[in-house]
Amino acid sequence: MLFFNLNWYYYEPIRLALKLSPLQFTHHTDQDLVQLLQQGDKKAFDALYGRYWRKLYLLAYQKLRSRELAEELVQDLFISLWTKRESLQITSSVGAYLGMAVRYMIIKFFQKERVHHQYEQTAALAPAYANTTEDEVFFNDLQEVIEQEINKLPEKCREVFQLSRHDHLSQKEISVKLHVSEKTVENHIGKALRLLRLSLKDFITSVVLLFFLG
């Protein structure tokens, strides 16, 4: 049974994201926090929420162009993170995992919207798009395959791509961090995307690739 009110998280996303960053976890890595989360540590959950809510919200808003939808989707993700904490399987960085999870939820959202638009008179079709164990298995498999292919990228190309997609840094921030030009950063990201789309083309569709890698 949950010992804190998830509804509070659901309706107070921005204020919480700014507020929740427990000082005792300042020096903990994301992996440390995940381990504590799996043990039911609420403050570790708070710390992850504080670290990632804004980044994930901006990612969702970029795709959905709706403040309300983006907030709702990210809140659903964190609620799911808590309720499924004991069975979490994160094989990449936490930032990459959460970013991929948001993209996957956006794909599911657009699937539901398309089905609703095309078959709004046929309510019986809706359950076909409910979250299932198969969805979770597919997401975990997809996460693992993408990370394997990212690790095969040329070293500098991989470093830039991970800073962009995993750490959610802008091209300008990456150029400052690595002491290279923004054009160089742009070229590395473009090269990484081309290589990944080529290596993953037999595993997932171009639409899914667009959301996970774009």
- Quickly give the structural class: mainly alpha
The number of distinct structural domains comes to 2
How many alpha or pi helices?
11
Residues in helices, as a percent range: over 70%
N to C succession of SSEs: HHHHHHHHHHH
Structure summary, number of beta strands: 0
> Can you summarize the main beta sheet?
none
- At CATH level 2, the architecture of the largest domain is Orthogonal Bundle
The overall average pLDDT, rounded, is: 77
The CATH class of the largest domain, by name, is Mainly Alpha
CATH topology of the largest domain: Arc Repressor Mutant, subunit A
The first-to-last residue Cα distance is 38 Å
Which residues sit in consecutive blocks of at least 5 with pLDDT less than 50? 1-5, 118-131
Alpha-carbon Rg, integer: 18 Å
CATH-level-4 superfamily name of the largest domain: Winged helix-like DNA-binding domain superfamily/Winged helix DNA-binding domain
| Overall outline | globular
Beta fraction of the residues? under 5%
